[in-house]
């Protein structure tokens, strides 16, 4: 549906930033690659696609199909007849290319380029990243215009990526530079029972379990009992149990004890 | 050529590590995707591919074609009939999946998972990363087996990646965690002239330029001369000139001065 479609697109655009690096494709050959680049860009919140002299007759329909719905990037793409024009308004540009043997030029990692892009953006300066023709790379003249060469750290004996993958890795570094996702966390769920259990609830479970273990004879060796209890408590202490999970565990204990000492729930 | 081919492959394998995370594809549907995953793995130095119940009749030839030469990963791939068997020897496993609504489960970024994998490897513990069926993702039962969910920070309204791209981003984080490429550096070139110029060579150029600027009248206003000279020196001081570049600049000055004051090289 057009309506749904429009809504989805505008949401994806909401996470894009005008001050993100421009992606500049110099002489791309295939509509498929342009489309997949658009997709990778939108994945990473990049919206400024610039295309210099694409191969005549590149297939716009194929580009759109391969963009997996990133049409808004293709719709906003701008076309240029020279790299010079494509980068005219940018302050810093990076070349993605193999290290040129006889140029003296700074090399940067994608993480460093992302850091610099973010820093430059705070001063309202904009960066761009140049990608050359599939398989052939950038012209040396275009590389010479660039401030630095962006080198992807990958298996040196197997480093070749397709255009969209290179855009994805570089865009990902930029996106994560701006992203504040915690490295490791346990998200809240909608269920009220999913709240972390209080210590009273957790200790209630421990005591329930230990009563049943006493009853069953598992803890019968007096002098070993304290350390066994501590070891068992430490297993569950590592888990950060929720209230739901405490109740599940109490149910397990009750049911397992059932055949031995009466109905479930007996060992309250 | 077979010989060349073999040499290239063994070189790519040299940068792979057995203690890197295993990549576990659960019920992959298309040979193309398996091939592209193998390529992304080799890009990132990952070599341990495990495949659980691929779709019957998946195309091994297509996989090889789409692997762009990463056959050694495909050749070493192991096949399993259950996820349980595929992960049996691993100590920590991560699920790549959308956040399940009603599970209480730690979420980690790919960078954090990479950090943990490297740390666990130092204790000879091995990690694995589970990927579900294209478009469908992992079964909840497989997710429940995992220690944490690996969540890729991307445009939340446009986060869908294909299998190989997800493997690439995760593998890239692992590879860079082990990689010591400097964030920014100027590599040495083979040319002897590309060595950084000494201060004597650089100052020789400054003085040459300033003599010609004096001769030409550019620095004629006495009270402004010192600050103009400093400003000009500061332009070039930011460049970290090589010997070659100093000589090029002296040539430029000589030739530009040529029409004015005699032959090139006059202003020695």
Automatic annotation (TrEMBL), chains A, B:
It catalyses: cytidine(32) in tRNA + S-adenosyl-L-methionine = 2'-O-methylcytidine(32) in tRNA + S-adenosyl-L-homocysteine + H(+); uridine(32) in tRNA + S-adenosyl-L-methionine = 2'-O-methyluridine(32) in tRNA + S-adenosyl-L-homocysteine + H(+). GO terms for molecular function: RNA binding; tRNA (cytidine(32)-2'-O)-methyltransferase activity; tRNA (cytidine(32)/uridine(32)-2'-O)-methyltransferase activity. It is found in: Cytoplasm. Its EC number is 2.1.1.200. It is an enzyme of class 2 (transferase). Homodimer. Belongs to the class IV-like SAM-binding methyltransferase superfamily. RNA methyltransferase TrmH family. This is tRNA (cytidine/uridine-2'-O-)-methyltransferase TrmJ. It comes from Candidatus Terasakiella magnetica. The lineage of its organism: Bacteria, Pseudomonadati, Pseudomonadota, Alphaproteobacteria, Rhodospirillales. The gene is trmJ.
């Amino acid at each position: 549906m057009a309506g749904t479609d429009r809504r989805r697109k505008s949401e994806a655009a909401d996470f894009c930033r005008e001050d993100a690096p421009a992606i500049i494709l110099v002489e791309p050959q295939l509509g498929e690659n342009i489309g997949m680049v658009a997709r990778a860009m939108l994945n990473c919140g990049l919206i400024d696609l610039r295309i210099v002299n694409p191969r005549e007759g590149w297939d716009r329909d194929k580009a759109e199909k391969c963009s997996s719905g990133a049409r808004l990037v293709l719709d906003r793409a701008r076309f240029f007849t020279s790299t010079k024009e494509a980068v005219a308004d940018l302050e810093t540009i990076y070349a993605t290319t193999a290290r040129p043997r006889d140029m003296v030029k700074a090399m940067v990692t994608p993480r460093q380029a992302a850091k610099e892009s973010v820093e430059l953006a705070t001063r309202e300066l904009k960066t761009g990243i140049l990608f050359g023709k599939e398989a052939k790379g950038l012209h040396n003249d275009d590389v010479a215009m660039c401030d630095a060469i962006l080198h992807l750290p990958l298996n040196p004996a197997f480093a070749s990526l397709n255009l969209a993958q290179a855009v994805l890795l570089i865009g990902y570094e930029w996106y994560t530079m701006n992203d504040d996702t915690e490295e490791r966390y346990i998200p809240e769920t909608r269920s009220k029972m999913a709240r972390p259990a209080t210590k009273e609830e957790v200790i209630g479970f421990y005591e329930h379990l230990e009563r049943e273990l006493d009853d069953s004879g598992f803890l019968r060796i007096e002098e070993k009992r304290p350390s066994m209890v501590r070891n068992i408590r430490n297993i569950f202490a590592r888990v950060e149990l929720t209230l739901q999970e405490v109740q599940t565990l109490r149910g397990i204990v009750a049911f397992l004890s059932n055949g031995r000492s009466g109905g479930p729930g007996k060992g309250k």
